[in-house]
Write a structure and sequence with these properties.
By secondary structure, this protein is of the alpha+beta class. 38% of the residues lie in helices and 21% in strands. Strands 1-5-6-12-11-10-7-9-8 form a nine-stranded mixed sheet, sandwiched between helices. It has a five-stranded mixed sheet with strand order 14-13-15-16-17, sandwiched between helices.
Length: 428
């Protein structure tokens, strides 16, 4: 085995990784579950390019994402290409260019990776695997509620518990900030400090305005909790935009209550990240055992207009690797839909084993034949090491010619069964 020392170059760049078979199977299962939920809600999957011309995509990317994109030169045209740093911007471009004549709403979902440069100290992945969806063409509260409901249903389907959706409305903070009439630089500084939850700095930045106005803005920091928070928000909102935002979040929450999902929802009017991107409802997904959000989304009505198609939209994405971390933290076992079998044959004539393997595969089982000659226990160790839960042994001593031995590699439980009954016993 090759040993690395301090002078050995790393095999991989920072922020990317390899999914070994067991982990890859979990990843695939999680992605399949989420996409199946989207499908049940009427969404159609879309596949976007892995890279494209930066100048064609940059209209939908904020400056931060453009800076983080991995860029290279197209050898054919000399134009700058970028590995996709964001799926939503790609879908917005595609819809504006090719699907604008389709009737609304459009329900599109995806399963893809994005690439973003991060400084080493940031501790973030540079290749991020996402499953998400976009609901394009309606600004009704029903559409925002639908996206939150799909996120909740996806987490429940995976088997996670102890999760919460922190839901806010960016228009509330925007309205409150405009109301106090700050100069442009102070406005930006207050927004930045608020996004970092630096309330002492906010108070310092607002020292030049009246105490009444300052205290009103500082009260936003307490607007986090259940439905009653909306009454407190309404009491301090003296402008139309903030009042409309409170009513909007009430409308969305009411629909989520009809879905029976209110226990998963927290109202959070303190969240102001994505200030320039989101235009209404925004939300983040948190799971017990993980100290950071595993997904986020919200309304972004201005994005498609940047590509020439003014159309309201809402969506969200879940981070698959963070979901896997949450699954591990909660000790969830993800079962595959197919039976996985190692077929061990000690007979000299392999005809029966080959025919049996084919019959089981035809019935929907995954079957690997153990083609290396070795002792039964060694074959079982092999199966266990590769996560194969069942073994079928033929030609074992004391077995009749028409019998097989089924072995659970995890518990070592053994059972004799007639070979002609195997396909019905094991098939899914």
């Amino acid at each position: 085995m090759l040993k690395l020392n301090s002078t050995t170059k790393p095999f991989l760049p920072k922020g990317v990784g390899t999914f070994f078979p067991e982990r890859a199977a979990k990843k695939k299962k999680v992605e399949e579950i989420i996409l199946s939920v989207f499908s049940r809600w009427g969404f159609k999957e879309i596949v976007t390019p892995g890279f494209e011309f930066l100048d064609a995509l940059s209209a939908g990317l904020d400056e931060n994402l453009t800076d983080k994109a991995y860029k290279f030169v197209d050898r054919g045209t000399g134009r700058i290409l970028a590995l996709r740093p964001d799926i939503t911007a790609q879908i917005a471009r595609i819809v504006a260019a090719s699907l604008a004549e389709k009737p609304s709403p459009m329900r599109l979902c995806y399963n893809a990776n994005v690439f973003r440069y991060e400084e080493e100290h940031a501790g973030r992945q540079q290749e991020i695997f996402q499953v998400g969806g976009e609901l394009i063409g309606t600004d009704l509260p029903e559409s925002d509620a639908e996206m939150v409901a799909i996120a909740v249903e996806s987490l429940k389907e995976i088997g996670l518990d102890g999760f919460e959706i922190a839901m806010g409305q960016i228009g509330f903070f925007k309205g409150m900030l405009k109301e106090i009439g700050l100069d442009s630089q102070t406005y930006l500084n207050v927004r930045d400090a608020f996004s970092k939850k630096e309330m002492l700095r906010v108070e310092e930045l607002l020292s030049g305005i009246s105490k009444i106005r300052r205290d009103k803005l500082l009260k936003i920091a307490d607007l986090f909790g259940k439905e009653e928070i909306l009454d407190k928000a309404e009491a301090i909102a003296d402008n139309k935009e903030s009042k409309r935002s409170v009513q909007n979040i009430r409308d969305v929450y009411r629909i989520l209550k009809l879905y029976g999902l209110e226990k998963y929802i927290l109202i959070d009017l303190t969240e102001v990240r994505g200030f320039d991107y989101y235009t209404g409802i925004l939300f983040e997904v948190f799971v017990k055992g993980i100290g950071y959000e595993i997904g986020s989304g919200g309304r972004y009505d201005g994005l498609l207009a940047k590509f020439g198609f003014d159309c309201p939209s809402t969506g969200f994405a879940l981070d698959v690797e963070r979901l896997l971390a949450a699954i591990d933290a909660q000790g969830i076992e993800l079962e595959t839909d197919r039976v996985n079998i190692l077929l061990i044959d000690f007979n000299k004539d392999k005809t029966a084993a080959i025919k049996l393997a084919k019959a089981l595969r035809d019935k929907g089982c995954n079957v690997a034949r153990d083609i290396i000659k070795r002792e039964l226990n060694s074959s079982l160790d092999y199966a266990k090491e590769w996560g194969i839960p069942k073994a079928i042994a033929l030609g074992v001593k004391d077995l009749k010619d028409d019998e097989a031995l089924i072995i659970d590699t995890r518990t070592s439980e053994r059972k004799r069964i007639k070979i002609n009954q195997l396909t019905d016993f094991l098939s899914v």
